[in-house]
Design a protein that fits this description.
There is one protein chain. By secondary structure, this protein is of the alpha+beta class. The protein has six helices and six strands. α1 runs antiparallel to α4. The longest helix has 24 residues. It starts with a helix and ends with a helix.
Length: about 210
Amino acid sequence: MSDRLAELISQLTKGWSERREFKVLRNRQAELRIETITHPPLLAELFTKTTVDVMAAGGDIVGGGGKPGSRPPGSLEAADLIEAVRQLARDTRRRWAPDVRLNVPAGRELQRCLALAEQADPSEVAQFEHELRHLVRRARIFLGYDSAPRNLWERCGCGGTLTVLQDNDGLPEKIKCTGTRENLPCGAESPRHMWLELLHQLETNYEHDDQ
């Protein structure tokens, strides 16, 4: 079983922790401190966001906004994310255990997939992990934990998205193929000392094509 898959499902269903470093002034000297912050499950936060937005809009998930049949944007995005996770988990579970008929919430579907992954085809597990990581990233951005990635207009040779990854100081570190929602990345990447050259080349190609 993939530890990375287990970690993604844990973020969604059990919560997750992060370590934060900060400095305090003691005896006129700065001391480094580290604290661990535990966050609730992403699915629970999405559900809460949906409920809060619906109540603020008038107590109805449909027709509670300013227009008949409309929903506030926040609740729509959160509800869509929950449904996307449930649909992905349900479709995957049906492929891995077609004889099992369940109609359960997203969290239980994910836990079932995690158990089935031990006997599933590794390539299918990798694909499920890739698609689930995409949804987890969307949820973390929507909830404000992460910032939206910077993607280039140019595509990788495999057709995947080229994403600018940042270091801990927020500076561009490398450009990496992150694949698409449906397809795994090819693994291509350009380190820090090459990414500016790549951007210049892409810009030159764009200007040449535009002429």
